[in-house]
Write the structure tokens for this entry.
Amino acid sequence: MTTQTFRTVERLVQGMPTSDGAGVRLTRVLTQNLQRRLDPFLMLDAFRNENPDDYIGGFPDHPHRGFETVTYMIAGRMRHHDSVGNEGLLGPGGAQWMTTGSGLIHSELPEQEEGLMEGFQLWLNLPAKNKMIAPSYRDIPPAAIPEYVSPDDVRVRVIAGASHGVEGAVQRPDTEPLYLDVHLPAGSRFVQPIAAGHNAFTYTYRGSVSIGGVAVPDRHMAILTNNGAPELCVEATEDSRLLIIAGQPLNEPIAQVGPFVMNTGAQLHEAMRDYQAGKFEAAAVRSL
């Protein structure tokens, strides 16, 4: 096979320890300086805390406008509330896909006082034409996430997009996201098609994998080259788990201040004025 058969690793990123919400300790893996390179993705936070002091405060009421948030839990339970009274419980193996659109206030608070809290939050940009659509959200229980199992016993949870003929729980236009949670036994190999022109990265959260001969260990992101190759090949050097994420870049201006992501500075000022005026209390719709 030629070197153009598979995507390779452009660089590894370990992430930046930080805290957010009411003191929740996490690792910010996809930071603001990578937004252009990994367009349409804006942020990836990973959290894995055994000590309740590191997560018990959760994420009290806070606003968003102009993008989508995807929360995926590995362990623990988080309760969602929003400004129009919607509520959901996110547990192990479940996901929530929220389109913040024109604006929403929500909270994510732990429903446990001990034990492991682990998961991810991904921010996915919206195209300019959709930044002011009505907010919506969807709770996706574990049983609603389709799975593909390979002949090598690789288990793939298809949160968005598709893998080997298995359609994911969510399909989104414009950005066309692929979001896979891949569990690989030691010595196994997994090949995933990735659309040409889509930006892509992986995040290893258990064990260690090899991509094109480059080791990608636990708690590391691999930014994948846009080398025209149609597939990604991952090999597990031990029992491992990783996320595979890819999407169609929007190639639009990004203007961000905290929880607001728009296209211009004027739109950001408008978002802050609308929030202060209480306009984020407007009704949301329940499903995507």
